[in-house]
Amino acid sequence: VRHLLIELTVDGEQVRIDADPRLLLVDLLRARAGGARPRVGCDTSHCGACAVLLDGLPIKSCTMLAVQAGGRTVTTAGGMDPSTALGLRQAFAKRGAAGCGYCTPGMMLVAAGAAELSEQGLRRAISGNICRCTGYDTIVRAGLEAPSHREVNGRVDVAPDRSVSFVGELAPPGALHLAILRSPLAHARVTAIDTEAARSAAGVMAVIIAEDLEGIGSLGIPTPLGEQRPVLATDRVQFQGQEVAAVVAEDPYLAEDALELIEIEYEPLPAVVGADAALGEAIPRPTEGNVWYRWEGGDAAFTAEAFEGAALIVFAETIYPRIHGAPLETSACLAEVDGGRLVVHATVERPEETADALSGLLSEPVEVRVPDLGGGFGTKRPVYPGYVLAALAARQLGRPVRWAESRSEHQATTTFGGDVRMRGELALAGDGRMLALRLDVICDHGAFLIDDHPPEVAWRSVAGPYDVPTTHVRVTGVQTNTSPGGTGSRTPVRTAESCLLIERLADLAATRLGIDPTDLRRLNLLPSDRRGHRSPASLVHHPSQYRRTLEVALSRIGYEDLRAEQAGRRDGPLLGIGVSTFLGGFGDRPSSFGACVAAVEVDAETGRWQVRRMVTALDLGGDGSPVTIDGRIDGDLASGFGVAAFERIEYDEDGNCMSSTFMDYLVPGALETPRFETVSVRGFSGELQEGIGAVGSTAALANAVNDALSHLDAPLVDVPLTAAAVWEAVHKEVAS
Amino acid sequence: MYPARFDYEAPASVSDAIEILSARGDGAKVLAGGQSLIPLLKLRFAAPEVLVDIGRIPGLAFVRRDDPALSVGATTTHAQIEASKTLSERCPVFIDAAAVIADPLVRNLGTIGGSVVHADPAGDWSAVLLAVDAEARVTGSRGERTIRAEELVLGPFTPALEPDELLTEIHVSAPKVTTAYEKLMRRTGDFATVGVAVSLRVVDGRLEEPRVALTAVGPQPFRSLNAEQALAGAELNEDLFSQAADAAATECEPAADARGSIPYKREMVRVQVRRALRRAVRRREE
Fold first, then answer.
1. Vertex A144: Cα angle to A142 and A145 (nearest 5)
2. Which of A364, A419, B77, B252 sees the fewest Cβ atoms within 10 Å?
3. Which residues of B touch A44 (CB under 8 A)?
4. What is this structure's pTM?
C-alpha cells in the first residue's frame, strides 16, 4: 500500500504528513499536538462529536478520509475565530450548556455557523450533534446569546473555560493500542483458537487469549454473587460481544487488521434470550434454572388480606425496556507504568472500587485515575475486561497501552438499565384510597450478574410517594445470553421502573373509578403531617410538600384548561395529558420529590406524537443552601423522554444485538427533544440528586400518550411508545 | 472501527477515472462524498482494493438550468441541492428530499450521485428520480449512455452501472413544480420508514402525467403504476388521492423491522401518498 503525502491547512497551520490513505481525518486531527481535538463518539456519523469545519462548512471528521481533505482548510474548535469562541464559551458557561463537555467543541462549531439565529434554526443546525447531558435547551440558549458576547470581547474576563481532558486525549509517546476480539455468537463452545497469523502481522506486539492469562493474577472479575466474569472467554462464550482475545499493536488500524487474522472455531449452542426463555426449559446454567436470585419483600399475608377487602383491584403488566446510558464517550483507558507502579487512566465512575478490583486481578497495586468523564450514567460503574487487559499489556510490554471501545462495543457489551418485566396489582377502597400493592418483577441481568445493587435495596420504593399501607414484592433476577448488566441507569436504581408501574396502575384505577387521575393522586400522596413515615418496604419518607409540589406542576401547565380542551376536541391530533409523581432520593431517606405533567399530541394517522408542554415541579427538600438547576435536569428529562420515545436495546431470537449503533439505538436529538419547564418549590435549595429528573418523565409521557388514546378503547402501549406501536394500538392490530 | 487497507486514486478527470476503473475492475470502488461508503469501510462490510475518489474531478458539482430541462451534477452535495434556488423554483421535490437526508453535517459531504449509485432500498433520491422521470448520464470505457430512472437500480445496493462506468449527472427533461417528497422517519437522520415522491401536472382541474414513487417499502424504490393509473386524467379531489393511496398501499412490499410491522408500513404508504399529493398540488397555487 502506497502512503500518500497529504497537505492541508488545520487551524491556520500548514500540515504535511505521509499517511496511509485509510487514515480518517479525525485521527489525523487527534494526533496533532496541542489544540482542541475533535472527539469520536459514534463511528457512524450520527453524533457530531467529531465535527470540524471543512472550507468553512461543518462536517463529521470521522466519516472522511484525511486524504480527501488534502489541499483544503480544516478548522477545529480550537481554530475558531477567537472572539466567536470567547462569546460561545461565555454563553455556554453562563447557561450551564456544557455537561460533561464531550460534545461541546462540536456543538460550538456548529452553533456558530447556524444559518438562522432562532431557536428552531439552532435546533436544526445542531440536529446532527448529540448531547446526552443537557437536553439541548441550554445549548440552544447559549448559541442564541453568544453573538452579543462577541461585542464585549476583550472587556470581560473569559468565563471559566472548563479545560477538559478525556482519557482519549492523553497521548504519551509510544502508546500502543489494544483491540478486543469479541464473540459473534450469543452462546457457543469455543473449540479452537489460532492466533499464529495475528501474532506475525504488521505492527503487532502481542496477542492475548485466556490461556495467556493463566498464572497472572485472576482470570475472572469477581461478581457480587462470588462468581467470576471471565476477562477472556475460555471454553464457552455466553453473550454476543463477549471478550475472546485481544491484540496489542502500534496503532488501532493495525490492531483491527490483526483481529481479523485470529481464527476461532465455535460450536453454537442454543441461546436463551428474554425472561420467558430464561424461566423456561433451556438451561445452560447448572444451578436453579437461569435464576440468579429470588427475593421477596413486604408482607405477603397482610397484603393478601388487604386485597381480600378491596373494592377495586387493577392489574397492569408492563415492561421497562433494556436501555443504555449511551454516554458520548465510550469506555476507554490508558494504562502505563509510572515509576514502577501501574497506573490506569480510565473512564470509570467508581475509581476506588475499580482500583481495588484491578489490584486484586493483577496481584499488584494499581492506581486508577479518572480524567474528565465524557458522561457515565451508570454505564461506567462496572470493571470491564478492557481495563484489565490494557493494564496487563502495559505491565508486560513496558509501554503505555490504550484501549477504547467502538460505539458498537459500548452499546452491545457494557451495562444497561431496565429490562424489567413488571406485573402489578393495586387494591383500592371504593373512594380511591390505595390499600395494597402487589408486584411480581423479573429482571434480566444477561450473561453475568455484574450488578451490585441487591434487590432488597433496588426494590424498596415500589409505592413511590404514595401512602400504601402494605406491599408485597417478588423479584426474580434471570440469566440470559445477552450482555451483562441491569442497573446501569442515570436514575437512582430501579426508581424509574417502579414509577412507571405505580403511575400506570394509578391511571388505570382512576379510569375504573371514574375520577380524575390527579384526584386519585391527591388522595394518596403522603400528607405533610406524616414526616418520618415508614413505608412498608422500609423507606423513610419526608413528605412535607408532596401535595403542594403536585399542585404547582398542575397549575403551571394549566391542567384544568387542558382537560377542557381535550374534552372539546373534535379533529386534529389527539391530545393526551399524563401525570407522574416520584421520589428522587435513594437510600434510606428519599429527600426529594417531583411531579411531572405532560401534554402530548398524537397524530393518529401515523402514531407519531410530540410533547406540547411538559412541566416538572421539584421539591429538593431544601434547607437553605441554593442549588443551581442547570442543563442536568433537562438532560435527565430528555433521557426519560428518550426512553418514552424510542430508546431500546433489542435482541433477535439468536441473541444478536440489534441496537448497537446510533442508527438502531435512537437517542433524542435537538429536533426531537422538547423544551422542558422546571419549577421549583422552596427555591431549589437542597441537594440535586443525579438522575432525579429522569425518574418520572417516562411515566408521565407514557400516561399522556395512553391518555390520548383512552377514548378509543385502545390497548395500553408500553414504552418505548414508538410511532408504530402507538399506531398499532390505535388500530388495535397489536403486533404478535 | 477502522477501514481495512486500500489503494487510493484521485483522478483529475472523468476519463482518468474511467481508465482506473477499467484497469482495476471489481476491486475498485468509487468514492464520492463517502457518507455511506466510509461507514461501510469502517465496519469492514466493504473492503475494496482501490478507492477512486471522484471528489477532485472539476465540473461534476452543479445545478444547471437548460429550459425546460434541469441537470444536477453527480458530486453535488445534498446541502447544495437544498440551497438551490433553481431547484426550489422549478422542481421543489429536490429540496424536500435534500432537507430530510441524514443531518446538516452529513449533507455537506454526501452527494446525490453517491447516494443514487449506493442504491439503498430506503434511499431518498431514488424515489425522487423515479417521480421526475429522471435519467442518469453515465460515462464508461465504451462511451456515454443514458439510463432511465426505472432501469438505474437492479436490486438492493445494486446499481445498473458497469464496474468501469461513472455516473456524471442526473438529467430531468421536463421538471414540474407540482412535486413533493414526504418522508416518515423515526428521528432526524434516520432512514425512511416510508418515503413517497410524487410529480404531476394539473391541467383544467385534471391530473396529467402523475408519478408516484415509493422508497423503503420494497427491495428497491419503485413507481406505483396502479396509483398513477388511478390519478391519470382524473379530476382533482381528495377522494382521488385516497384511491391512489390505496393502490400504492396494495402494491408495496414492505418488510417488518424495527421501524414497524407490514400492516403499519402499508398504512403509512397510504398516509404519505395522500400527504405528498396534497403538498404537490398546493404548490400549484404558490
1. 65
2. A364
3. 1, 39, 42
4. 0.95
